[in-house]
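Lab notebook: predicted structure, single chain.

Context: the supervisor wants predicted structures on file for every construct in the current expression panel, including those that have not yet been purified. This is the next one on the list. No modifications to the sequence; it matches the entry in the shared construct table.
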Amino acid sequence: MVDKGVVDKDAVDKDVIDKNAVDKDVIDNGDTKLALSHVGDGPNLLFVHGLGSAQLLWGPLVRVLQDRYRCWTLDLRGHGASDRTPGAYNLPGYGSDVAAALDHIAAPTVGIGHSLGGTSLARTAAGCHRHLRAVYLLDSGLFRPAGKTPPTALVELFNNQLAMLRQFQPENRPIEDYQEVLAAAPYPAGGTNQDVMVPEQLRGRAESLSLLDPDCIEATLAGFVASDKVARDKVARDKLPRDSVSLAFTIPTRVVAADPSLGAVFRPEHEGQLVALTPQATVFTMLGVAHQLMMIKGYDDEVRQDLEAWLADLEELV
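Prediction complete. Output recorded below exactly as produced.
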């Protein structure tokens, strides 16, 4: 006879371990090997990081969601544990990484992406990938610049981080050195990253940058330079369609934008364009926070709450 007041500790521990165990896979995208991990059980969520980050970015959100969802996290090419692919750091390449991850999951999936990760998911959505059922995009670029000058603050940020990588990586500097530099960097709303970033996110960003192929940032900066040249060249600029839209969506879409006054990538003028193309899309502008969004103290909870509420409305789709 089993005493109902006694808990079988071995059985409980096994259940907890099985539920929280992270499975790490290596998948192929042509000749490129990509790191893809998953944990939890339930409907599939695919998390895709931004430029310079990696799977580490999603740790806090995944821990909250893994009891209800199977959470997949991807390292894009040149990032984290994925292969470096010099000369192929562009949106088609990153988008193909997302498609490869979806092919591996091979089941209905909701994509969640920040910045470059959101843009890559959007490209995949525009390609009507059969497994991508909805997208949640955190301050991601969805529209062509149409000859507009790139944001100065973003260019400065990437230039500074590129200089750090070019110096630190050949010297095999410890993660603590990366973290020290990041912590001292100014935050757009005042103070430093040390003052405002969630400690786990600050450490994770430092570790992610230590693994990043510097050519990823170099390629992005080259794109900024080309865009700036077009912006300054009237002849070239006049050949561009005004406010041309890169992507249109036929699946449920949620965009969370940063504060426009703090350098948001998804700008207020983009909302009308997006909704005109995709009537079911919704946009939430998070005032008081810069592009980092869920990396910032207090706003990490706001992002989590918004994502959980949005996912609850999508349960029948995933």
